Amino acid sequence: MMKFCDIVSRVVSTVVLCVVWVPIGYGQIKVWKSPSSNNPIVTSQWEVNDLVYKVKRKVEKPFLKEVFARVEGGQKEQRIPLFYNGNNEWVFRYSSAEIGDKHFAIESDIKGLNGIAGKIIVTENKKTGRHGGIVLNKEKPRDFFHEDGTHYFNLAFECDWLFALDYPQEDLAKTTHLLSLIKANGYNQIVMNVYAYGLDLDWVKDEGLKKNPQHNYGCREDIFPFLGSNEHPDYSSLNIDFFKHLDRVISKMHDYDIVSHLMIYVWNKRVSWPALGSEADDMYYKHVIERYQAFPNIVWDVSKEAASKIAFAQNKNIVEHLIERAQMTRALDAYGRLLTVHDFGFCKNHKEWVDFISIQNWKLDLYDLMLKAYKEFPDKPVFNIEHGGYEESPYAIFPGGYSNAEYCLRRNYLCLFAGVYTTYYWQGTSWNAIIHNPFEQGSDVKKPHFEYFKYMRSLFNQVNYENFEPVTKFNSRSYNLTNYKDGMILLYVPKEVHHADIKNQLDNEFNYDSATCQWFNTLTGEFTPEEKVEFKHKYGFWDWRPWRNQADAIYVIRGLEKK
After folding, report:
1. Is residue 509 within 8 Å of 563, Cβ to Cβ?
2. Fewer CB within 10 A of the end CB, N or C, for the chain?
3. Residues in the chain where the model's pLDDT stays below 70
4. How far is CA 403 from each of CA 212, 359, 361, 362, rounded to the nearest angstrom?
């Protein structure tokens, strides 16, 4: 192969049937058809670009070919894989967190691809609210951050079948409506599958879905990532139309700056997967990593319920396979997107292969268990991806452990007050049933309480969550987050509790002569007026509190000076 400097200076014409350097775009992807090396690509930070090259001859087993673009310029060199997109077309999908000039050269044993070169000019991001991909920070290893250094308050929303919502329409009307609701209510991540088929056989079969088939996206034979269908799979090749649709979905999420927590496998949704480690399996997994790594809004999850009993029943070597897939992801992903596995046992026993800990736990003592995980992994963020709280909907898909909306909300707060991030589930969107427009349904249809999380987000937007830590030694009836750096305390007080037990901590650790306090209603988002911290009762924990027996509340104290 040619040296990089020689390739960059060479103009290759054997691939290009016609030169079109003006981008054709959909969503957040700018598409450049056979761009000329004489005309640089101009893009902005975190904007996704598809540079499309068409070869003249058919390539055997194109999905298994290795085609890379070596990119130089800035602080690091990248070796970014291209992916095959059907019709003899190869796509170099690119985005950049760095501004400045980049030079690329394609390396391949495919005639007509090897030697293609070009220049990309990356300008400063101007989109309000866009902060780049999700990364870790060595100084604060328990938290998530954006590439621009701002904190990422990970508040996830489960929607496993999002890939199917508008399939195969190019106009993502339903998806756009649902994403607008998710964004407006404070969520900034969707936990979703690349593909899922049907519910576990022992799950509830709600008869209501038979009356409203427009809300049922499970068991569709026209949606499958391989050729054929889930019932009659053909593993000889991938279904490019499936992935083109998923492109549009993830691109639309990028429009809304919503992260795709992309679960590549799922073992308990009746998918007809090819044999582990087979050529078809490698083809599928490799293609997903190649195709979606350039999206800044991607977080990898090797598999949902990765090492569950169902997974072991299907694959005795599942743990070894998960490790191998994590290795493959690291090798192929030139952007270093964060990686996890939806299985606490795997994350705990093989933490060197994950960037953050995913934990699923439905037990009543959720706070204590999350606090234990927080302490056990001081060098990684912990993310409760499933706590058994599945808010009720018009369809009883899977009630889990808890379906009352207020109690589900409480479990999310308990995770946050234990120092770990959390996920919301509504049974009307989490699995095969998707009501994309719940607030446009009739008055007799049960609506979700998305607004509870809008209020949650409004509170945490006012504080620096990454500077808080759980404190337990002073509190017996409330849950405590203390920010020693900024002089703040948040106390989560269940509605049944008379008052917050805070005076002991203040007396021991702070000067609070100038401190102020107010209460926050978790169900309405209402704040009481801010006032000076004073204790009217001699014990300091039997003073009046608002919304007692009506709503869980958070006592917010500001202006503390550490002793």
Report:
1. yes
2. C
3. 1-27, 540-541
4. 22, 20, 15, 12
Q: Output the six-digit token pair for 531.
A: 């006032």
Closest CA to 348 of 377, 322, 371: 377
How many beta carbons lie within 10 A of that of residue 213, not counting itself?
A: 8
Paired tokens of 283: 């083809």
The tally of CA atoms less than 13 A away on the side-chain side of residue 234 is: 9
> 240 forms bridges with which residues in the sheet?
none
pLDDT at 562: 96
Supply the pLDDT for residue 6.
45
Question: Is residue 72 a contact partner of residue 3, using CB atoms and an 8 Å limit?
Answer: no
SS3 annotation, 436-449: CCHHHCCCCCCCCC
The whole-number pLDDT of residue 217 equals 96
Q: Angle 139-192-243 (CA atoms, 0-180°, nearest 5)? A: 110
Helical H runs in 64-218? 173-184, 208-211
Write down the pLDDT at residue 25. Answer: 44
How many C-beta atoms lie closer than 10 Å to residue 170's C-beta? 9
Q: Quick one: pLDDT at residue 300?
A: 98
451: DSSP letter = H
| Nearest-angstrom CA–CA distance, 191 and 151 | 19
Please tell me what DSSP assigns to residue 212.
-
Structure tokens at 261: 């927590």
HSE, side-chain direction, 13 A CA sphere, residue 275:
3
- DSSP sequence for 281-340: HHHHHHHHHHHHTT-TTEEEEEEETTTSHHHHHH-TTHHHHHHHHHHHHHHH-TT---EE
Closest among 517, 549, 522 to 416, alpha carbons compared:
522
The reported pLDDT for the residue numbered 330 is 98
Q: Quote the tokens at residue 471.
A: 């404190």
